[in-house]
Amino acid sequence: MSILAQKGTWVGPSLKVLSLVRKKTTLVLKYDTSRALATSSLSLESYCQDNDNDEVFSKNRGIDNFIKSGDLGSALELFDEMPLYDVVSCNLLISGYRRYGLGKEGFKFYAEMVSQGIRESASTFSSVLGICADAGLYGEGTQVHCRVVLLGFGLNLFVRSSLINLYMHMRLENVALKMFDELPERNLATWNVVLRGFCEVGPVEKMFELYSRMKWAGLESNGLTLCYLIRGCCNGGSFDEGKQLHCHAIKLGCVQLNLFVANALVDLYSACESLIDARKAFEDIPSKDVISWNSIVWVYANHGLLLDALRVFSGMQYWGNRPSIRSLVGLLNLASGTKNVGLGKQIHSFAVKSGFDCGSIHIQSALINMYGKCGDIERSVAIYESVEEKTLECRNSLMTSLLYCGCIGDVVELFGLMVDVCIGLDEVTLSTTLKALTVSALTSLASFKVVHCCAVKLGLESDIAVSCSLIDAYSKCGQVRYSRMVFEELPSPNVICFTSIINGYAQNGMGSESLRLFHTMIQKGLKPDKVTFLCVLTGCNHSGLVKEGKMLFDSMKTLYGICPDRQHYSCMVDLLGRAGLIDEAEELLKKAPKGDSMMWSSFLRSCKVYKNELLGRRAAEVLMELEPENPAICLQVSNFYSEIGEFSTSIQIRELAMARRLTREIGHSLIQTSSHC
Fold it and tell me: What are the start and end residues of each PPR repeat (predicted)?
């Protein structure tokens, strides 16, 4: 039997029957305000009611004290001992459940409260809606919204703010903004709720538009407002806007007086790849707390500065600051990125000694990822198996580790298991599964469609990572029309999305369409990066668009300030060589970074096709100097000498290649010539 069902309910003086019934430890009070009662009886009732009110108030204070001290269990025991309780008693426990992350238990308690006939207050709705937003109970949250309207709390400022917060968590920004605009009055807390939503889901432009409206309404920012705005700049990489916010924070005195703002600035400059500004923001904090130290450790680790990260990591402990989960995760991620398993093991040992390894999902997930990225997949699986509660984050880390180590079948099998047992999936799960399917020899178009259906059912079809993975998967199957459909459904595609679809067309020999999409991206004000240029040049290469490719290559440095790297040069050398422009390809090779065998291999292939023996000999000599141990290179050079009639040299080089036991992987294609999917 539930807690609420075991006891009487304080329902106030509005009920019409008065009785006092004692059943074991349970008191049920009901009141009668009938005019037929004598004056003396009414006086007795008032006296009893006042005493009961005092007793409930006293017990409520006890519950509140227990919750604030971190003892939710004692608060529940005290509530269980109360013969009478009111809506305030329930509100305290609901907020207690929320404070300690027990969202589902808190909502169950609320449901029992309603079933007992206790009418909610504004505080009840604020707490319950907060639980629904935090715990992802979106269906339950919409039901609570119905009760809000039914009981007439729809325009209550605090309840409406909680509803706005719920719909922002649900990514229903338009609904949240509509509710916000309908409010007759808005305080700073309400504005902060909306700004927090947009700082997390974007776009940054909309967040600053709302901020301008807030200032126009005569409200001044507080520290919380600035934290949300700075975090939004972090997520959007908005360096210039972040600088302006930094200046505004200095004018308001928040940098010196508000540690949260000061720490947020460190994260801002780190996210914008400005290490010098991040370090200066850290040094400007007058009294650094543990968050400040952990932030700068994360910054150094995130930028691959191992010695600086370890120096600060040791320094913070010297000054009495205990490293947090964030510091350890940052260092574990650094170990993953640099394949430094020695560092990873040391951080693992520190985590065990500090008690973080068993109690932190983030540490466990980072450890699984670290060992996987360092090639120790057995240790990665062992840590996963040792985790008592296998969360989605841990499963995702195992999936990415398996993918990295080439265990493609295991990735697909794990995905199928998660679907079968109805474990929640997210964008990381779907994106990793799609990447695994694209490199699997047993994959069909139907497999991609199944994952696509899962994305649609979960509402993740517009997620950037999932969409780009779908675009890549469909294009590798030769189904570029499906890739274009996914792209067209994106509400506001960014550079990554455009690059994915451009690459899809390029890989399928549709260079002209790649160019059109590239120019569309430029017209939308998006700045291409190195990967975008490489994809467009690949499209030009596969379609023989020499003039367009040369113009694009030249514009990289002149118009966009991007220095071409080896891959760009290699693509251009191949493009010029395929078109028979051997002399131009050689001139470009002289300007390219030295030591790239791929470029020279492409150049030699072109020399062979167009019978240019002189330049071919030069390319063959360079290739043998660069990679004499590479059997594939030896075979290509051997074939070239055989083509020009130098059979003795050809045989000599071929024997060298055979001595190195040349092995080739069997290729496979994802393209289906006919499909009934």
Answer: 86-120, 187-221, 289-323, 494-528
Name beta bridge partners: 29: 20
Domain count of the fold of the chain: 1
On the question of pLDDT at 36 being above 80, the answer is no
Nearest to 634 by CA among 603, 673, 660: 660
**Residue in the block written with tokens 């469609």:** 449
87 domain residue, yes or no:
yes
Report residue 654 as tokens.
Answer: 């071929």
Nearest of 175, 218, 239, 167 to residue 196 by alpha carbon: 167
**Rounded to an integer, what is the distance from CA 310 to the centroid of its chain?**
26
Per-residue CA distances from 545 to 1, 280, 513 (Å): 76, 48, 12
194 touches 180 (CB < 8 A): yes
Q: What is the mean pLDDT of the chain?
A: 83
Instruction: Please state the separation of Cα 195 from the chain's center in Å.
Output: 19
Longest dimension (CA), the chain: 127
For residue 184, cis peptide bond before it (omega within 30 degrees of 0):
no
* 613-626 helix and 597-609 helix, angle to the nearest 10 degrees: 150
pLDDT at 16 over 80: no
- Residue 270 is predicted with a pLDDT of 81
What is the spatial distance between Cα 260 and Cα 271, in angstroms, rounded to a whole number?
16
- The reported pLDDT for the residue numbered 434 is 93
pLDDT by residue (tens digit) across 451-472? 999 999 888 888 899 999 999 9
Q: Pick from 554, 564, 477: which is nearest to 529 by CA?
A: 564
- Is residue 146 included in any domain, yes or no? yes
Partners of 251 in the β-ladder: none
Banded model confidence at residue 50, pLDDT cuts 50, 70, 90: low
Find where tokens 């291409």 sit: 528
3-state DSSP assignment of residue 20: strand
10, 56 contact by CB (below 8 A): yes
CA distance 637 to 641: 6
The per-residue pLDDT for range 85-133, each reduced to its tens digit, is 888 888 899 988 988 888 889 999 999 989 988 899 999 999 999 999 8
Domain span at residue 71 reads 55-180
Distance of CA 4 to the CA centre of its chain: 39
pLDDT digits (tens, 9 = 90+) for 281-321: 888 887 787 888 888 888 888 888 888 888 888 888 888 88
Residues 6 or more apart whose Cβ sits within 8 Å of residue 609: 577
Give this prediction's pTM.
0.68
Residue with more model confidence, 37 or 345: 345
CATH value at residue 164:
1.25.40.10
Task: Indicate whether 164 belongs to any domain.
Answer: yes
In order, the DSSP letters of 548-592 are HHHHHHHHHHHTT-----HHHHHHHHHHHHHTT-HHHHHHHHHHS
Which two structure tokens, joined as six digits, stand for 230?
């700075």
575: tokens are 């493009």
Name which of 259, 285, 280 is nearest 270 in CA terms.
280
Would you say 438 and 473 are in contact if contact means Cβ atoms under 8 Å apart?
yes
Kindly state the helix (H) or strand (E) to which residue 27 belongs, with its residue range. Answer: strand 26-30
pLDDT tens, position by position, 490-534: 988 889 999 999 999 999 999 999 999 999 999 998 999 999 999
Report CA-CA distances (Å) from 491 to 80, 427, 431, 467, 527: 51, 17, 19, 11, 18
Whether 497 maps to a domain, the answer reads no
Residue showing tokens 């079968």:
420
Q: Specify the amino acid at residue 309.
A: A
Helices (H), strands (E): how many in the chain? 38, 2
pLDDT of residue 629: 79
DSSP labels, 191-207: HHHHHHHHHHH--HHHH
The CB-based long-range contact list for 133-139 (8 Å cut-off, 24+ gap) reads: 133/162, 133/165, 133/166, 133/168, 133/169, 134/98, 134/101, 134/103, 134/169, 135/103, 135/104, 135/107, 136/169, 137/103, 137/104, 137/107, 138/166, 138/169, 138/170
